[in-house]
Amino acid sequence: MHFNRNGSMNNIHNVEKTMQKYQQLAKDAQSNGDPVLAQNYLQHADHYLRRYTELNERRDNSIEKSIPENKDLSKEENQKSQIQQTTN
């Protein structure tokens, strides 16, 4: 196996592809009659599933945090606009 050390574990798409690869390898090993190898691949797939879930949660949390900031900015802009209108 070739393992990239260039931050690929932080790229959700790479993690998802790797997880799917191990799931497929497990299916292949199971169909070839090697349950031990299949279990090994499933453990690898499970590791990447946990990492995938973690990255999704991190992404969702960062999106949720950015939404209130945008709302606050638009409120600020509305207040400035209203102040400018009343002073003119």
Key terms for this structure?
2 helices, mainly alpha, 88 residues
Structure overview:
The chain contains two helices and no strands. The protein has 88 residues and is an all-alpha fold. It has one domain. α1 packs antiparallel against α2. The relative contact order is 0.09. The model has no long low-confidence stretch (mean pLDDT 82).
Sequence-ordered SSE layout with sheet pairings:
Layout: H1 12-31, H2 35-87
Helix pairs in contact: 1-2
The count of helical stretches stands at 2
| Main beta-sheet strand count, sense and barrel state | none
Amount of beta strand: under 5%
What low-confidence regions span 5 or more consecutive residues with pLDDT below 50? none
Structural class: mainly alpha
Order of helices and strands: HH
Short description:
The chain is mostly helical and 88 residues long.
